[in-house]
């Protein structure tokens, strides 16, 4: 199988999905209106609510939702063969992820930028909201702790990525000033920012930073983990325009350049896909493809984390409601392209099937390392980029994406902590809420030992929890649409599929954790499963009520005004 076929077919499907299906959703389902007063204007505060150019916001949104997951998930899932992974990524991106992300963004914008957890209280009920917040908190805890470990491991294993990783922060701060203070044009800022970032990559490849075995009494990995959390804590409270927006925008451009290099190398070298289309001889201990494929590949097909970002930060920065199509749906397409690139890199980046099988000796093997190795090999063959530089480019891309997701994740978890405290009658300021988030995350990360390995303790539940949250987010969107008397089938089909697969996977994992006597994950699995079933019951009731008695019927699209915004 020639990998060029996978690349061309996959990219073409996603582009058509954006050109056709997203237009249908924007016009017929969500009915986006250019004159609707968005929260960024109505509640503008210069910190979280900031009207933002749609291209800059797309970069912030895209890199926040992407992280390492659209690389790790597909790179692990190809153990079942490239065909199941390819089909789920392409179909999932077009009909599941794009619709979900756009829907969550629309729902939040129509409710003054409120989070999806808060919206569940309005559209599903107070009990559902409380359980929703529990699931969201656990998911964000998994993301923040695990990504800190992943980034630290990459900085240690690929020391050439250290300089561009931390230098990118300085570039982002300068880009933020150039856009908002100096009023430079966006094309000029883009060129300067990308040139600066790739100059740092070349510098990092020339001067790798290798830490000693012990730094301030900590191992190299543990030191990087602590530094990452301290940085994320600071980044989560500074104005979003000063660091997160410009950092994510430049990273988004960097990713598309990196993907351009990878896909260009595929077209030039036309490597053969050595992995089987369907692997009938998976290693012993590999779980069943159904339902685990659909929770192993989360980001890159559909992801509940996207709904948190859409409603938590992106909705507060949307300049026009019609920008949601580009930011939300095309953000999902960008992640789908990254996931497709990961599939190609990990199935066509090896010379022989024996080389591939040597990497995929057990389930959960591969991951970022396989992506960097396979992608670097393809770039070397296609464009002649030296292996060391190829590895630096791909490793830096993975690190920066994981870091931007961690930045946003800490900020979002701070929102959740403040919201939960508010429900209990306690008002927490940003600083105290951030400290609580960092203490909990660091406690989990170092709870299993000084090496920080605890950050991966509850990661096995990430996929199921993430997909479950996607289904619950879609239930909120479905209730909103039903209340307005609008078509809801494009939401209901993915909603039912994702919830069935997520609950099925939770039950399967329950048996695995019991057999392995992993009591921590067993208890968490039960908690998440009970919370999920409870919210599902509440959501079904809310949908039935909305179907029988639409409260905000608007069958005919009408121009919206600021007054209507306050009433919705």
From TrEMBL:
What region holds the CstA N-terminal domain? 2-347, 362-505
State the taxonomy lineage.
Bacteria, Bacillati, Actinomycetota, Actinomycetes, Micrococcales
The listed locations are: Cell membrane
Q: Which InterPro entries match?
A: CstA, CstA_N
Give me the gene this protein comes from.
cstA
Topology versus the membrane: Multi-pass membrane protein
- What keywords were assigned to this record? Cell membrane, Membrane, Transmembrane, Transmembrane helix
Signal sequence interval, chain numbering: none
Family, similarity comment: Belongs to the peptide transporter carbon starvation (CstA) (TC 2.A.114) family.
Q: Where is this region: Disordered?
A: 547-568
Q: Tell me, which GO biological process terms does this entry list?
A: cellular response to starvation
Q: Which source organism does the UniProt entry give?
A: Kocuria flava
- GO CC terms, sorted: plasma membrane
Q: Which domain of life is it from?
A: Bacteria
User: Which residue ranges traverse the bilayer?
Assistant: 6-26, 62-80, 86-109, 130-155, 161-179, 186-203, 223-244, 256-278, 290-309, 329-350, 389-410, 431-450, 456-481, 488-507, 519-544
Record field: compositional bias (Polar residues):
557-568
Protein name as it appears in the record: Carbon starvation protein A
């Amino acid at each position: 199988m020639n990998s060029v076929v996978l690349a061309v077919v996959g990219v073409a499907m996603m582009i058509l999905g954006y050109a056709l299906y997203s237009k249908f959703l924007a016009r017929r389902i969500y009915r986006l209106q250019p004159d609707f007063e968005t929260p960024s204007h109505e509640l503008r505060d210069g910190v979280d609510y900031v009207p933002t150019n749609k291209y800059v916001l797309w970069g912030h949104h895209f890199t926040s939702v992407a992280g390492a997951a659209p690389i790790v998930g597909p790179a692990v899932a190809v153990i079942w063969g490239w065909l199941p992974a390819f089909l789920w990524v392409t179909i999932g991106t077009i009909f599941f992820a794009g619709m979900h992300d756009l829907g969550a963004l629309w729902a939040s914008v129509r409710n003054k930028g409120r989070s999806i957890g808060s919206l569940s209280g309005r559209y599903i009920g107070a009990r559902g909201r409380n359980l929703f917040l529990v699931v969201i908190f656990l998911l964000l805890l998994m993301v923040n702790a695990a990504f800190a470990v992943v980034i630290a491991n990459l900085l240690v294993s690929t020391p050439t990525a250290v300089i561009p990783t931390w230098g990118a922060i300085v570039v982002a701060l300068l880009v933020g000033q150039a856009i908002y203070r100096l009023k430079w044009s966006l094309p000029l800022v883009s060129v300067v920012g990308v040139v600066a970032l790739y100059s740092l990559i070349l510098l990092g490849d020339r001067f790798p930073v290798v830490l000693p075995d012990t730094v301030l009494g900590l191992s190299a990995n543990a030191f990087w983990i602590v530094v990452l959390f301290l940085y994320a804590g600071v980044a989560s409270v500074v104005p979003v325009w000063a660091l997160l927006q410009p950092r994510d925008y430049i990273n988004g451009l960097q990713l598309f350049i990196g993907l351009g290099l990878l896909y260009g190398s595929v077209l030039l070298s036309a490597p053969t896909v050595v992995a089987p289309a369907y692997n009938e001889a998976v290693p012993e201990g590999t779980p069943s493809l159904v339902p685990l494929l659909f929770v192993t590949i989360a980001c890159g097909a559909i992801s509940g984390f996207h709904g948190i970002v859409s409603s938590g930060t992106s909705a507060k920065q949307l300049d026009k409601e019609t920008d949601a199509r580009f930011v939300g749906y095309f953000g999902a397409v960008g992640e789908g392209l990254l996931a497709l690139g990961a599939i190609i890199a990990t199935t066509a980046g090896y010379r022989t099937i024996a080389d591939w099988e040597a990497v995929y000796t057990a389930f959960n093997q591969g991951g970022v390392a396989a992506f960097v190795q396979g992608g670097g090999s393809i770039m070397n063959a296609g464009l002649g980029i030296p292996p060391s530089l190829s590895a630096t480019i791909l490793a830096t891309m993975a690190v920066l994406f994981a870091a931007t997701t961690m930045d946003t994740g800490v900020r979002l978890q701070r929102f959740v902590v403040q919201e939960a405290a508010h429900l209990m009658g306690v008002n927490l300021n940003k600083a105290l809420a951030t400290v609580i988030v960092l203490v909990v995350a660091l406690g989990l990360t170092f709870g299993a030992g000084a090496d920080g390995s605890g950050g991966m303790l509850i990661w096995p539940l990430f996929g199921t929890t993430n997909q479950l949250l996607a289904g619950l987010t879609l239930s909120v969107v479905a209730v909103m649409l039903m209340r307005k008397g609008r078509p809801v089938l494009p939401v209901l089909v993915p909603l039912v599929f994702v919830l069935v697969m997520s609950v099925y996977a939770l039950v399967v994992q329950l048996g695995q954790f019991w057999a392995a006597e992993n009591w921590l994950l067993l208890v968490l699995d039960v908690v998440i499963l009970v919370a999920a079933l409870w919210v599902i019951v509440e959501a079904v009731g809310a949908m039935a009520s909305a179907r029988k008695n639409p409260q905000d019927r608007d069958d005919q699209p009408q121009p919206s005004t600021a007054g209507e915004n306050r009433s919705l």
